[in-house]
Fold this protein.
Amino acid sequence: MILLKKTCSIVCATLFLVWGIVAANASEMSLEGFILAVRENNPTLQASLKRLEASYHTVRSAVAVQRPSAGLRGATSYNTDDSQSRQGVYSLSAAISHRFDVSGVYSAQEKQLLLQYNILAADHLALINNTLAAAESLYWRSFIARENSALQKEILAQRREDLRITEEKFRQQLIPRLDVVRAQARVEEAESIVVQAESAYRDTLTQLATLSGGIAVTPRSETLLVPSLSIRAGVESALTTRNDIRSAELSLERARVLKALAAKGMSPSVEGAIGYTILTDSPSQQPDQNELLFSLNVSIPVYDGGKTKEDTEEKARSIEAAERSLEARRLDVREDVLKARTQWEKAVALEASKRKQVARSDEELKITQLMYMEGMGAQIDLLNAQVDNQRVRTEHLDAIKEMYLALVSLRQAMSEYEPAPAE
């Protein structure tokens, strides 16, 4: 039994030493610095940004067909028929062609492409808002986990001091052996809780590094203050700042443009071209050498098998789907804001209650310890007071954490990390 206790103590000491070395190599960051690191280095955000940049070039490529095109054309042939005189034919010409937008198709195509790009941009901003909200939430979880670890170490130190006093009283034959066994059990329990608290803290640091793109981060050491409400949260305000709402609104607008574009499926097309032959020896070349040729082709569709009609009906149903999607997102925003408000109110009430419990428990523990040291109290009363004090102090830390998390939920619901642009 003694060997097992010594082995556990050595293992715990080794873990604390290794963790101390690792933590020392991690850079302390303020919340603002960590948020900036996540914004600049998070792989998911960077991948989304690159997809958005690729979409920009896709739009420019798609509208390029609306502009005139120019090119050179060269051709040559050689006749080797024995019955005729051998001769070669060659030509070199240049041409400029353009398809004229006589029915407004180009403007509709360009508008829907720009709307598609803006939808992706809004989705990217929504991803930033949600990612940064998760980052701040994790930052405070890690901060509180470190505070809880420090609290558990204080409790462990107190338990060890209680054990020392108990053993001294036992040697003086003032208390029975059972009190020493109880004190040893409390020390072992406290050691186990410290290891769990340190493990939870290490897990949060690993998650912080993942969010920041591999940068080793520890929350900056500072006085833990009870936060105050600094956000004006309202459903109507959220509807104007949320990027997911903007994305849904743009999707609805694009669906309407696509329907108008589908209705132009039977529109006539006009294509013009200017050709110029630079060099040729062919008598059948059109135009002849050093001459210009103007051409104009008009195409008027008569029947397309019902394609335009079905495309229009499909786009009409897409408009209805986009309207329902926008309505659903508005309801989601309302739910997010109201739930975040409730979460904050609950956290405020819980923190105030736990703060009073901590003050009462601290006073009770202080009195119990004095009575026990003077031989006027039982050890079981001291242990119960210590357990109660540990519980309420841990619960108070959790209540403060819930207040910070509620603020994060409010900021996320209002899209304060990355609000939608005004236009």
Q: What stands out?
A: Residues 56 and 117 are 7 Å apart (CA to CA). Residues 1-25 have pLDDT under 50 and may be disordered. The first helix runs from residue 2 to 25. The first strand starts at residue 27 and ends at 29.
